[in-house]
Amino acid sequence: MNDNATNEPVATPSGQWIGARVPRREDSRLLTGSGHFVDDIERPNLLHAAFTRSPLAAASIAAIDPESARPARGVAEVFTGADLAVGGLSALLERDEFTPTSMPILAEDRVRYAGEPVALALAEDPYVAEDAAELVGVDYEERTAVTSVTDALDADAASVHEELTANTFLDVTPFDDDEIDDQFSRADHVVDLATDTARQCALPLETRGCLAEWVPRDEQLVIHISTQVPHQVRTAVARCTGLAERAVRVLVPDVGGGFGLKCVVGREEIAVAAAALRLRRPVKWVEDRREALTASFHGREQSYRARAAFDSEGQLLGLDADVACDVGAYSAFPFTCGVEPLMAASEFPGVYRVPRYRVRARAIATNKTPTAPYRGVSRPQIVLVMERLMALAARELGIDSVELRRKNLIDEFPYLGVNGVTYDPGTYRESLDLCEQRLRAEGWEQERADSNRVIGIGYACFNERTAYGTDAFAQRTMSVVPGYDISEVRMDPSGTVTVSSGTSSHGQGHETTLAQVAAEALGMRPQDVTIRQGDTDRVSYGWGTFGSRSAAIGGGAVRVAATRLAETLCSVAAGVLDIAESDVALADAQAYSQSDPSVVVTYADLAELSYLRAHRLPKGVHPGLSAEAVFDVPGSGTFSNATHGVVTELDPDTGQVRILRYLVVEDCGVVINPTIVDGQVRGGVAQGVAGALYESIGYDADGQPTNANLIDYMVPTATEVPDVTIEHLETPCAFTETGAKGMGEGGTIGAPGAVLDAVNDALHAVGAPAESELNTVPITPQQITTALEACR
Length: 792
Ligand code: MCN
Description:
20 helices, alpha+beta, 24% strand, seven-stranded mixed beta sheet, binds pterin cytosine dinucleotide, globular, single chain
């Protein structure tokens, strides 16, 4: 609840800040045009950067001639890869099944996707820079492009990288079982499925961009960048340029979304940093939308061959899958091209008890844009596949598909999965029960029976592993291992607090939620706490924001540091008030005696004493009020869970899928800010619906992008995105400081599976034959009209 007149935050009825609907502090500046993004930064003497990009998907470079561009009027410099002479980016997995390759900052002898940067042109006028980039002469010798997994695995396929065998970066079978084939041959029911999901672009509203400048006074290369991972940008720039990390400072202004695409480091960003270092002039680059669609990172293009075995009662006996991910031309730093296959392999069993499991997962190279983690990373696909297998099995067994799911849900916690993962307690059954109960009560089945409308009701049950700590990431075998995070909490002489965090909000509202966490621990108001992120000089290291980690891990570090500062405040107050430390309590920005609440000192007085009149501090108490903490989550991380329930209506004339109802019942442990969590769920569902019904990046047989604009790449608008009703269940996490689990990806994870299930339920209800049901996304209007015609 908030006081509407002032928009002042109001605590929960029990006086807590955790759980309060504190209005997003960042919104007042973002909604009034006062946000400050990379492109708002200006510098005297600024050069604009534009990249010469390969028009071909696969070619050898016979020659690059920057001289054709250098003399052009207004051109300051043109760099080729050889001129820039910086090291490439290597994103490695330390396992035998992975073949390392390097991504040069500017291509020199080969190009491997249309849009790959080959040269960098710089000019004071951005249009001159664009023209100069076009003038760079590049002599290409076209090669055969490999544009699909099927092509890539063909025995006669051209090779994307000479180092790779069969165009395969990674081929792992992390879970195998000698008995699984026997199990399948003995099973009463086996269902199988072949499915593909389309390539998508995460498409943040703000494209990538950076401004790099050498600051002589600090002897630092300062990079202002739209990123999710400031410290990893620092590491990458330092490694490529040979600078010490101390000599690189990364600053993150407001960021207009990332969705995973900005949690890897782009080669363009390194090139801009290297150019600024070389020229000792500020250089800015802001990606245009076509570049964003062709040369930024993609995700989600995966093929599954999967089968599931059941006994006569519908108990799941085994799961067997082959996952091939089209990861494009390079392995992105730091997450590597293994991120999708490894996520799919480790998380596939999801919310179900799977006694036997085998999975093969591959990262296949093609002459297409490289991929990066995109919100949900493989989980939208594995949930879609699992839920589809459940629906197919239910049909074969002749039982209700919700009943079949319920029968197989994990219902005892902690549960050690066949995948070696420990699942902490959640509400797998309760969320399904509530979701089903709500939709049934709304009478959709009756509506369907009483009308000619082609209505379907679909569900997806899933969990979302969040708060991957160091242990969980170490399993991935990346050569850099994310996990922990660091926070510093500091009270200034006026008694207000600044928190520095290694996390990096880019739309999630951390300025609000992390302030709530600190305020709760310190006994003060969140509006008196300022959150600072995105400055690598403030925190010794941090892993930024991805993988739904910031509430659980970043919030953990904030909570521990704030609690330490609270302890210091107690000991200073005990000396000042001349009472026992155990008698001191903190509330409303005051320290007081519990035995006599009239004995009180304000934080402002304590802070003034601590900094400005330190000679009057009690003996043994040091001046200054600050504390630092590192927080990590052990083991497998923590799992939030949800059930999505969707009602769709199919239009037999146009093939349109209309979403009539979208219900999410979710459990992310203790909710720090329900308004923000609801916003995250809604945004996530919008992106999941985009994957289910609309978005698909196209390439032709030569590897040319076919829809790199926002007319042909169909991003859903407010008209297509449904209203989402959200119900919360709350199972506090036992090993995060606040009891919160992460949830930032869940909306995206559940939506494709739930929408597909609802569409197939509608087709089934009007008697479409089993073979007319759909298995792939996005679902197209043509598929719907064809399937409906099959029942006429
Ligand atoms: N939260 C909460 N209570 C909880 C859990 C979360 O109040 N129990 C709040 C958090 O404090 C935070 C937000 O919800 O303000 C999301 O928290 P969390 O689940 O920890 O996720 P992260 O903050 O680490 O964000 C990452 C996640 C991911 S992986 C992607 S991708 C994503 C997303 O968040 N990209 C986004 N949400 C996005 N939202 C916007 N606007 N833009 C993006 O690019």
